Amino acid sequence: MSSSELTQATAGAETGPAGSVRLDHVTHRYGRGGAAFTAVGPVDLSVPAGEFLVLVGASGCGKSTLLRLIAGFEEPTRGAVRVSGAQPRPGEAAGVVFQTPRLFPWRTVRGNIDLALRYAGVNRAQWPERRAELLARVGLEGTEKRRTWEISGGQQQRVAIARALAAENPLLLLDEPFAALDALTRERLQEDVRRVTDLTGRTTVFVTHSADEAVFLGSRIVVLSKSPGTVALDLPISLPRGDVDAEELRDSEEFAELRAEVSHAVKSAAAA
Ligand code: ADP
Ligand code: MG
Fold first, then answer.
1. Strands 78-83 and 21-30
2. Are 80 and 188 in a shared domain?
């Protein structure tokens, strides 16, 4: 599906560009009264449709909280969150991928994907074609009949990504999805996510604490300060996108410089 098709499919009653995200002076607090704890904010952030934004910061700085606010799983204590111009509705605003795949273990790979297609309201007659397309996108051809406990951790996370893509939602949110994977599998999945999102034109917000992962994936990186997280650095990344040689990109001088810059920013933000 092209980005223009995606926009058409998801345009409608909403008033902002499909897949765009806006945070206006967002603060989020957990608990009440004397036990209240401010986890993030104030944060102002505007993510145009089609951008690949990576949120980086030390553990506990509020990255997951921000992502949950954008997904509509939490409402901000102060300020406003808008996705495609509207208040995000949980389960509808975005496709979400968590750190652990959260698949249905008694179902096959095919069963997990089909369930996502059903939730997405895809006509049953189109499931075989859509399923094959999704599995091919994440490199899972031939695994349809396997149970989720029969496949590797990397493959399970691929299923979770395919499931998040099933809804054809213009916004994709990923919360440290590769943190538990070995280095080689992680690099492969990074390459796939970069390619898939470039190809489909989806807006993506990806959370990580790895500067390396951030620079490889992002078209823009926002470094968060330590808790309560605020924007400490907002950096556009102009590395080539689309059909690129990942190895060459990772070995480039430009990549090394950006990684050093982000890594330094994360460390000083955590210490400040
Ligand atoms: P990160 O993802 O950057 O590690 P989180 O957004 O998970 O950070 O958490 C930010 C802060 O908010 C942490 O101090 C965490 O302990 C706290 N926190 C997260 N979720 C809750 C919750 N449901 N109730 C209370 N405090 C929470
Ligand atoms: Mg987190």
1. antiparallel
2. yes
